Amino acid sequence: MGTRSIIPCTARGLPAGAPLSMWKILSQFFAALTGGGRAPGGSTPTVIRSNPDSSNANASNLARPAPSEPVTVQPSISPSAKPSLNAGQATSTTTGTPAAALPAKPRVNEHHPRADSYLEEREKELLARISDRIAKGDLELPQLPSTSMAVIDMTSKATADISDIVKAIESDPVLSSEIIKTSNSALYSGAEPVETIAAAVVRIGLRNLRTLMFSLSMRSTVLRDKRLSSYAEEVWRHAFSTATIARAIAKPVGVEPDRAFLLGLLADIGKVSLLAMLRKEVPKGADVSPALVGRVFYLYHEIAGGRLAEAWHMPQDIVAVAGCHHRFQENQHNQKDAALVSLALRLDMVLGRDDCDAGDMLLLPEMEFLALPTSTRQLVVEAAQEARESALKTAAA
Prior knowledge:
Elements: H1 20-33, H2 121-135, H3 146-155, H4 162-170, H5 173-183, H6 197-204, H7 206-223, H8 229-248, H9 250-253, H10 257-266, H11 270-281, H12 290-311, H13 316-323, H14 335-351, H15 358-361, H16 365-369, H17 374-396
């Protein structure tokens, strides 16, 4: 990197050769995630990225990064159906104890143009059912594979026994293959290729092994169901890319890189829970629009994320970040980690746009909050682009 200028924004949201139809789906999906969606007659509604009450919406807003606080949206459901899971009020579904730093949803602007009028009636009804379930604490909480959970638990202990870890991994042929493959990848490869699980564990190291187990397990959990596969694939791509970017930009921010990777990987795990809910609520064979998926993600992925992180027995700092990262300044547990994750998430989204502006990225609110010098900001953007391109290649492999 050094002192070279910021490289042009050439990364794309999908690997080269992806079908045009898939790209169209994911383009709509990205629009839905930022509050757009399907307008009546197939037109695209104007997206306001600044003050929700501003009347100065124009095309230039679309090229700008979204503000740190998401623009408020009015769900087309009755007030009684809205969840009221404010910070400190949510309760763990597994332990019965208060969840750490779950976010309060922003106040609703009743007159905001980005309402749910873009959803069909059946989609509004489905959104209302999901809202009711979340308000009652009835979330789908997919579990990680049992072998992965066992290995993660063992690697979390100060007195971890490597022989027990090796034995657990060897009981799962697919997992064993992935561990061997990873230990011989460019990230860990040594002078001689690794051929045994024991040698692979030693080469990777217990701390890195724990992060790797989460990565492999989350990927299999997200992609295990073929329904809504296009959305699941994008959730995984975005999670892996965010994690890779977080690791690449961690040192200037003062966060340990491998920890940053794990924070980035698990930041949006709430979407895993919401996809499971959509699969259950949507009749088989029925169409699921990007507008509906985007609205469900926008409204509830942080609430679901905090709950799922608890169900997966994550440390409190990760629960807090999964539960509140877009409005990182409101995170009551660790604002710095939340700001790092928010920055990585935003950089992944912005770098995937054809019209991304490198100058705008230097002025992102997370950059200001983290008090990064101008020279460091440029290096962060360069590192993020290189990391994103690397993640795209790895995800496509």
